[in-house]
Amino acid sequence: MSGTYPPAPQHLRAACADRHGHLTSRPSRTTLQIYLDDGLVYRADADGYRLPQDLAQGDKGGGPYIITGAGRRAILNASQCAALDAADGDGALSPKVGWPTVAALARLGLVEYRDAGGRVHPTDGDDGRTGPSHRPFLTEAGTAAAGAAPSPT
Length: 153
What we know:
The structure is a single chain. The protein has helices at residues 9-17, 29-37, 69-74, 78-85, 99-107, 140-147; strands spanning 41-43, 65-67, 111-114, 120-121, 135-138. The protein is α+β, with helices and mostly antiparallel strands. The longest helix has 9 residues, at 9-17. The model has no long low-confidence stretch (mean pLDDT 91).
């Protein structure tokens, strides 16, 4: 495969950041077929069953295209993949992961910040004086991306 992989990654980034994982913009038919063939997205029929990739674009009664764990992983750089892969058994990211990486993962919905009581917060709680007070943890989507097979090169 020549060129950048995955093609038109902005569509997958938008889907990754979408609360429901839906493709919010429509890539070309060719790009969408690559996403389907490579397992980066899927589409369910009206009954909720996953359509075969060769039929997903033609099914008029189908639902939205939904990003998979492999699709989420395909848009990450090496440091972001390493951060997800090194999360502990509870899903906590290592304190050694840099804040730019954590912030990027949070924008994509793969990480959330939790306080000591497990409550979710929109930021790490850093007030500029005392440092972060909330730790980054994998979300369900982050766990799916961490468990996905590496993307093709």
